[in-house]
Amino acid sequence: MSQAVLFDTPGPRARRNILVANVIGGVVAAGIVGLVLWKLGQEGQLAAGRWTSLFTGSAWMNFFLPGLQNTIVAALYSVVLAVVFGLVFGLGRLAPLAPVRWLAGMVVEFFRAVPVLIMMVALYIGLGAFGVVSPRDVPLVSVVVALTLYNGSIIAELVRSGVFGLPKGQREAAAAIGMTHGKSLRLVELPQALIAMLPSLVSQFVVILKDSALGYIITFNEFLQLSRQFGGGNGNMLQALIVCAVVFILINWLLTRAAALVARRLSRRTSGRTQPRLVNAGAAGAAGTPAT
Amino acid sequence: MNLFEQVSFLFSSYNIPAAFWVNIQLTFWAAIGALLVGTVLGLMRVSPVPSLQWLGTAYVTVFRNTPLTVLMLLAVLGVWSQLKITFAQDFATNFFIYACVVLAIYHAAFVCEAVRSGINTVPLGQAEAARAIGLPFLPAARLVLLPQAFRGAIAPLGNVLIALIKNTTVAAAASVAVETSSVMRGMIEANSNMVILIFMIFALGYVILVVPVGVVTTSLSRKLAVTR
Amino acid sequence: MRNVRSIFAVAAVAALGLSACTTDAGNDAATEDEGTGTSTSTATADGADCSGGDGTLRIGIKFDQPGLGFQDGSTYTGFDVDVATYVACELGYGADAIEWVSAPSANRETMLENGQVDMIFATYSITDARKEVVDFAGPYFVAGQDLLVREDDDSIDGPESLNGKNLCSVTGSTSAQKVKDTLASEVQLLEQPGYADCVTVLEAGQVDAVTTDDIILAGLAATPANSGKFKVVGAPFSEENYGVGLPKGSDMCEDINTAITAMIDDGSWEEAVTSNTEGTGYTPNADLNPPTPAACA
């Protein structure tokens, strides 16, 4: 529903009221911001020295950029592996064979329900105890596997709902020209479902990037961890955390914009719906039942 | 030790239900807060006032894109330590409340989007009819839009609730040390020969908490869907 | 449709390729930031020939404790780093064969157990509880638990005066445990992931003291960012024997003890203590230092 129909176009009096409310609201907001800044100033948190060291070559070359790189590497691994996981189990849930559907459903529901942090911590300690991977890769592998299992199960749901979301006519047309269930899925439905889910995939990237910040708890040298290390060494922990938050917001905002752009571009190429999912609450479950 | 002995050993040496109870309490308070703030934000985003729309959008952009971990750390190091906002003299209570507030603020952004998606399910004609009988924005929202929007938003709201249940583990970053992920960590470190068992206990605990929420919200959303 | 599918295939292949090459770059960088950076060691025996070991030695240190283990840009400094460098050399690993890995207090046992590091020099107190899961060589230093307070705070002169005060320590450290066991009824304890977090909270006044070992506190108080803001109370109330953390069943304990003894005998130990505590006003307890490494288990 477009917003314009929810209310009448404001008349002169309403416009005046809005203006007055805006001025009052603005003054109140400015007051709160001022109070916070004053308090931070009192605590010496606004002193120039606490901020300038954040914008030196050494800070970025030795701390922020390597951290960002590790975050992005972990996220890329997770995205690729989660797509593979999602395709396998998403198609599993569409399989004609009931036991396969049942098994895939169990796996997906299980990994959707377990908190990422619980998986990360268990993997971090467990992988080492069993010696399956080279010890120095344990933190990276734990982060990637935890993110893959969780986001993979979300993507499996996307695949399934993507195929369900196609107009029935597509399947019927495929059947009409003599395609089997598998052929119809492979040649007609899946390609369109994949394109329809591409924007959601991009916004899943946001979830993965955010959740990778949990890696600091298990000694993975990602962006948050190295930001904290820098802040710890230079007496500006709070400022380093703020830089960290701003960088995360910027990257994720750009990704969200990209998802919207992709959605608009691709809507012509599929009969599925390409809206990026509205809800993706980070370190936890979303998707499944698409918003209707 | 056989499996049964191991399980009873773990349950007798550690208070696992108490750890889950902390997460359930966090979920309860944060869910109420997130629902209230999120609904207000959702209304702001569809309201006639441009500045309110802008504020709602800014809120969602900021809090949806920041890792929850970073928010938790900023709450302790920035808000509690610098701005000195204290909810209780007792540290344990204070940080529990902080964790609830941060969880509520973070998930409010997702509740807002869920409410908005719910409003999107209400057909144009409903709003036009409300306007036609002379209802201004707020009464129209309260009497016509929101009752239908919440029905349409049940499934996405259920998803936010599931997310919230699982995200309570991140409260560990805000000095809440008695919740599940911290307790599980301590248990695994002390009994590293039972890693898989301990993980399965906690994982199944979450499955038991989360799966019913999914089932209930899905069936509710079907049952309450406005027939059109 | 075929067209569409090929686009998707190309995108998928591109994503894989992209991740593959970025990952390589990432691993290089990871090596770099985990610290093949050379340490500015003053303690390595002059002209010593550090050869004989194969591959690299991964040593866990703190990255955030000035004067002990600290990442200063791309280099690593501190007493722990100097001792580790000396010992590594004696074991046959030169400075460029050492890989420094950050070992936060709460993760030290796990890092040894799962093999992320070969040994740990991270203000790691030898305790009976820890001996059950890891082995120790050393001790190579004896410190004492003390309190760090704000410069203008005269109300605290030892653990007895902490009644009704708020205290901060680091998760997983012995100090936190000791406070919980003996002082918990009278003080409120805040546990944070690192000492820098504690210092931030102390500066803001939300806690009244930070507790851990005196040498750590002295280093924290003396960094340029904190100078003039804090003071160490100077009434240590425990004995903390810093050992070299090793995986359970390690065969390196004897060699490390020999190296530590050699370092103490040839004066490098003294030199490392002096150069790393210079300007902090800290002097180690002379009755207990330098310690004699205990017999290996």
TrEMBL record, chain A:
GO terms for molecular function: transmembrane transporter activity. Keywords: Cell membrane, Membrane, Transmembrane, Transmembrane helix, Transport. Its main location: membrane. PROSITE patterns: ABC_TM1. GO terms for biological process: amino acid transport. The chain crosses the membrane at residues 20-40, 47-65, 71-92, 113-133, 139-159, 238-263. It is found in: Cell membrane. GO terms for cellular component: ATP-binding cassette (ABC) transporter complex. NCBIfam families: HEQRo_perm_3TM (TIGR01726). This is Glutamate ABC transporter permease. It holds the Pfam family BPD_transp_1. Residues 68-259 form the ABC transmembrane type-1 domain. InterPro entries: AA_ABC_transptr_permease_3TM, ArtM/GltK/GlnP/TcyL/YhdX-like, MetI-like, MetI-like_sf. Belongs to the binding-protein-dependent transport system permease family. The keyword Transmembrane applies. It is a multi-pass membrane protein.
From TrEMBL, chain B:
The keyword Membrane applies. One of its GO terms (molecular function) is transmembrane transporter activity. One of its GO terms (biological process) is amino acid transport. It is found in: Cell membrane. NCBIfam families: HEQRo_perm_3TM (TIGR01726). PANTHER family: AMINO-ACID ABC TRANSPORTER PERMEASE PROTEIN YHDX-RELATED, MEMBRANE COMPONENT OF AMINO ACID ABC TRANSPORTER. It comes from Litorihabitans aurantiacus. It is a multi-pass membrane protein. GO terms for cellular component: ATP-binding cassette (ABC) transporter complex. This is ABC transporter permease. The chain crosses the membrane at residues 20-44, 65-83, 95-115, 194-215. Keywords: Amino-acid transport, Cell membrane, Membrane, Transmembrane, Transmembrane helix, Transport. Belongs to the binding-protein-dependent transport system permease family. HisMQ subfamily. Residues 20-217 form the ABC transmembrane type-1 domain.
